[in-house]
Write a structure and sequence with these properties.
By secondary structure, the chain is low in regular secondary structure. The protein contains 1 helix and no strands.
């Protein structure tokens, strides 16, 4: 008998990785609802 391997979908993101955040969703992905809205916050400290 064959054993089925279970794949665990864990995030594969390290701190500082931002290239995937800048990628736009395609129209097809938007129609299917396969996208995530991303909001970037940046802390700018001025003296």
């Amino acid at each position: 008998m064959r054993r089925k391997r279970r794949r665990h979908n864990k995030p594969k993101v390290a701190p500082g990785m931002t290239d995937f955040l800048e990628k736009e969703a395609t129209r097809k992905e938007i129609r299917r609802g396969k996208f995530t809205r991303v909001t970037r916050l940046s802390y700018d400290e001025t003296d």
